[in-house]
Amino acid sequence: MGRQQESKKYQLGEAFIILLRQEPLEKITINQICNQAKVHRSTFYRHFEDKFDLLRFCFQAFMLENLDSQNVIRSIVETIDGDHKLFRNVLINNLDVNLIDLMIDLLTETIIEGYHGQLRSEKLQNWLNSFLNASTDINMTARMLAGGILTVLSDWIENNYQLSPEKIIEYFANFEEIFN
What is the residue-level pLDDT of the chain in tens, covering all 180 positions? Predict the structure, then answer.
């Protein structure tokens, strides 16, 4: 993919992020995304199948790629804490029950990629491997981890961040120690 094509892809992702800070995912249309990005619908479909495919791209390009590989959990919690509206509109303010399944699928894929050594974060990869190496079914274990992590983070968001980011980080750190 050429530089201009890659630029359009990121332009669409950035437009989508802006819209996600304004309203729930299920209310955002492809036309809104294209208008915000100032591109034609055909450009959108050249890069993405639908807005869920774009969400997957944004998750990987804007969140996973920017994680601090030395402190992954802290990085995730601080990212969520730094953008309340976006994460509330992705994880909480949607009537579409399938969206949480999509998020679990995305995180499951990331966990499996980590198991296969495809993540930048060696610390995250080691943490994931401690769970997955003992598993008789890597896919099922990765999905269980993804569901658990997203449930904790979704509850934190849904309860208006009543626990401090440090308490959430401490919880995951304690969880990590139990299994290492």
Answer: 688 888 899 999 999 999 999 999 889 999 999 999 999 999 999 999 999 899 989 988 887 777 776 677 788 888 889 998 988 888 777 666 567 777 788 888 877 877 776 655 565 666 677 778 888 898 998 899 888 888 888 889 888 889 999 999 888 877 655 454
Q: How far apart are CA 74 and CA 80, in angstroms?
A: 10
CB 91 within 8 A of CB 153: yes
Phi, psi for 27 (deg, rounded to 5): -90, -10
Residue with the two structure tokens 């060696």: 122
Gap between the Cα atoms of 160 and 87, Å rounded: 11
